[in-house]
Amino acid sequence: MSLQSIKYAPGKLDILDQLLLPVQSKYVAVKGVEDGWKAINKMQVRGAPAIAIVGCLSLAVEILPEQFDSKKSLRQEIEGKLNYLVSARPTAVNMKIAADELIALANELTKDEAIDVQEMKQRFLAATEAMLQKDIADNKAIGTNGAAAILDISGKDSSVRVLTHCNTGSLATAGYGTALGVVRKLHELKKLEHVYCTETRPYNQGARLTAYELVHDKLPATLVLDSMVAALMRAKNIAAVVVGADRVAANGDTANKIGTYQIAVVAKHHGVPFFVAAPLTSIDLQIPSGDHIIIEERPDREMTHVGEHRIAAPGINCWNPAFDVTPAALISGIITERGVFSPQHLKHEISAVLGV
Ligand SMILES: CSC[C@@H](O)[C@@H](O)C(=O)COP(=O)(O)O
Predict the structure, then answer these.
(1) How far is the CA of 103 from the centre of ligand 1 (A)?
(2) Where is the active site (predicted)?
């Protein structure tokens, strides 16, 4: 059975505590928005799509038992709590886009004179709950589109070796995964010779989470350290790199886990195609370029310690940005559920597909 990081039934939300993986698989209850905010901020749940889903479902759990005396008070609660959830982590855009969409829905329902406060609440909860299934469907489409793009480039008859970074699988999404969904699809098509995953220092999402998923799902996989990528490309005939995204700007610049940018530079040097796989909810057409993306800086301790064990000299200063921005010029294609877009023409191509 594939991994499930989010378990939801109306009024009940449990998440797999990713701080404990891979040593322990333990679900923790998220009983409302405060728990949701803390789980996102402390990285018990992580990965851009999963953050948005857990944030929104934590609100669903909180408002289900509550009584509201007017649609206006329900709307205010929804807006205030969603904006609070957006503040838990700054870089990934999915929570912000989900919050904006749900606030717009709440505004629309407030104005609709044909419905009362009970019906407004039901419709809001249904929209929130629909996110889980939609994310899985989107990821499967990303997998199909991405596998086709990689096989197109590498020649359809051969199996491929690919490299991925960070974690973009079932643990970072509602299921199946984005970049890891592409890897999964290649495997389903019997076209995956091998996947290499980086350790992803300092938080080790690759070694702890991606490696855990790859072993769990029995995919042919090998772990490498972040410092081995250039040597790997020279030695192992890598057909493509595929990574996720936390926020893609309108010009195709992409924020993703720290280390992504240097992999893209190395890929360019070796002529290896570099793909970003992400749902449309990771694309922020409101910002013109990556210069406008706020990069979260995390505590020094994530660099100086492994668990309780100090590995850096006491007293040394640290700089710990959690993400970097890969310039669009280094990206071969942005794989979404609606097709593979050229980063240089992203805004235009998305508008054409969505008809807006
Ligand atoms: C499918 S998610 C893509 C990204 O969110 C992922 O690569 C990543 O950077 C996760 O960062 P994290 O800091 O662990 O939340």
Answers:
(1) 25
(2) 246
